[in-house]
Design a protein that fits this description.
It contains four helices and no strands. It is mainly α and 76 residues long. InterPro entries: PMP3. Pfam families: Pmp3 (PF01679).
Length: 76
């Protein structure tokens, strides 16, 4: 984990404390499921939104999504 990566993570965490969906948006994008869950939880209550945003930023890898067709081997 480099210095730039650490600074970006700290900025995302700071944004997620001030406005939880913004921190998630910076990490995962605006059209991700994590972002919309963060928006919903923030509307329902500020604290659940912050807790979820911090959890998502610290533990969920944004590159975990892969093409489901990559698992198949085509023989022709």
């Amino acid at each position: 984990m480099g210095l730039c990566s650490c600074c970006c993570r700290c900025l995302e965490l700071l944004c997620s404390v001030l406005l939880p969906p913004l921190g998630v948006c910076l990490r995962h994008g605006c059209c991700s499921m994590e972002f919309w869950i963060s928006v919903l939880l923030t509307i329902l209550g500020y604290l659940p939104g912050v807790l979820y945003a911090v959890y998502v930023i610290c533990s969920v890898d944004p590159d975990r999504r892969r093409d489901p067709d990559e698992d198949y081997v085509y023989v022709g």
